[in-house]
Amino acid sequence: MSTKDVLLGTAGRKLVTIDGEQDVVRLQPPASPARIAEIERELGFALPPELSELLRVSAGLDMEMQESLDLASIGPCPWEGPLGPVMRLIGDGAGNFWVLELHPGMETLGPVWFVCHDAPVLVYQSADLATFVLDYLRFFAAPHDGPVSEVVEESIQRVWTQTLDIPRARLLDSEDTVLCDFARRLDDGWFIRDLRRAKAGDGIPIGRFGPKTPLARAGLEFVFAYGSRTRTQRFKTWLTGR
Q1: Are residues 39 and 84 in the same domain?
Q2: Per-residue pLDDT for 233 more than 80?
Q3: What angle do helix axes 49-57 and 33-43 make, rounded to 10 degrees?
Q4: CB within 10 Å: which end of the chain, N or C, has fewer?
């Protein structure tokens, strides 16, 4: 099912919050040609054809009891996450967001990531926008389960405490050229996480060494890294914010 079909199919859908309150999904009006042109100027490249088509149908979904799904909110990744410009799809009400990275020539509207500040992690949510919309609305139907529920309620803490990240020194001679080349660009004290084959709930602790943890990425690959910081550096950040 196309993203447009999924979006149109949600109109009028009745939801029930975890607190038992009723809600109804409503389509937002289309984005104007001027707004679409403005987004492309901000990005510096043309929107993917599928996204342009979506915006000409609707700019998102409105729900009274939840935050709106916004397809026209474009900007930097929240919490200085290691992604390029993103579509900030929707928030969880606590300052965390589901986002979709945009770049020239992308053929699929995805994947969708969950960027969280408490704990500071980046978590893989869905392979594409259509799947995310269906999974998100599933979360607001009894029994309120599914991939979105799992990411919010389980994966954040699991990603924060996991020890799957690999010291760059162990990948210097990797037969995987992406990992090998990336590791050789980094200094000692960096840890690499390969999320090219991620499934919902996989992720990386982007704030492992405090709010100024240095982050890196292997081009447009979903291969990320973070650098260590000394206790003195972290204490300085706590004092000065730098």
Answers
A1: yes
A2: no
A3: 150
A4: C
